[in-house]
Amino acid sequence: MYSTIAPIQGVLDMKKIIFTVFVNIITFFLFALVVGYQVQKSKIGEELVVIESQVKVSENIANPFYEEKPEPVVVAVPMSNIASKGTWTWPTEKPYIITSYYQYRGDGFHNAIDIYSYKGYGSNVYSANNGTVVAASMGCTAGYTSCNSGRGNFIVINHNYDNYYTIYMHLSNINVNVNDSVEAGQIIGKVGNTGNVWPVPNSYNPYGGTHLHFGVFKGNPLSGGSSINPLNLY
Ligand SMILES: [Zn+2]
Fold it and tell me: What are the residues whose beta carbon lies below 5 Å from ligand 1 (ion)?
């Protein structure tokens, strides 16, 4: 009986061994498959890292774009003598006092404002906005009240925007010439007391009547422009 059973048991053992080897092979392949997948996955991960660095590179490439951003401002430079609403600059140094408003007074309608800067005679007069100088008339000395029709030394600027013009009267000095391009806040002259000012300056009161007469017009004030209240701009 043993001799017949033993071979059968041996065959069974062989089947068990083959089965075990088969299972191990299957396990190995499954393991290899999983490991291979993990390896592939990590490679995908590496690729993603590369993609990320490429994104960073592209961001670096984008940086010069930011450097180019100021270019529109550069493009705007040729337009610098064109005024823009909302950027009006006060025409005198501060502090100041308005000594005569845009209103009727004893001698008729005062179509401008008179400004006295506490920096006084010779203080800066600024262009109220970007523009082009269309009149710059010197030659008046203090006390000659009818000089330049009472304007004294004066400047007119065309702001090349919505027909805005400004006029600056009674100056002691002028720093610009006709056809000059000027920017908002640029010094164009000095406060003075030339032309028709009160009190009329004399040897006892050489700085009498010092102020800036500042007018804003739609259209050239020397040829039919109509005045507006300068304070509407500020
Ligand atoms: Zn005035």
Answer: 114, 213
CA of 7 to the centre of ligand 1 (A): 133
Ramachandran angles phi, psi of 56, nearest 5°? -65, -40
User: Ligand 1 centroid vs 215 CA: distance in angstroms?
Assistant: 8
For ligand 1, the distance from its centroid to the CA atom of residue 25, given in whole angstroms, is 107
The pair of structure tokens assigned to 10 is 């041996």
The verdict on whether omega for the bond into residue 206 sits within 30 degrees of 0, i.e. cis, is no
Are the CB atoms for 196 and 140 separated by under 8 Å?
A: no
Q: Could you give the CA distance from residue 163 to residue 159 in angstroms, rounded to a whole number?
A: 7
Asked if 127 and 186 count as a contact pair (C-beta separation under 8 A), the reply is yes
Predicted model pTM? 0.66
Q: Each residue of 164-221: pLDDT tens digit?
A: 999 999 999 999 999 999 999 999 999 999 999 999 999 999 999 999 999 999 999 9
Nearest C-alpha neighbor of 123 from the set 82, 173, 167: 173
**109: three-class secondary structure by DSSP:** strand
**pLDDT digits 0-9 by tens, 109-132:** 999 999 999 999 999 999 999 999
φ and ψ at residue 233, rounded to 5 degrees = -90, -10
- Burial state string for 16-42 with b = 16 or more CB within 10 A and e = fewer than 16: eeeeeeeeeeeeeeeeeeeeeeeeeee
**109 C-alpha to ligand 1 centroid (Å):** 10
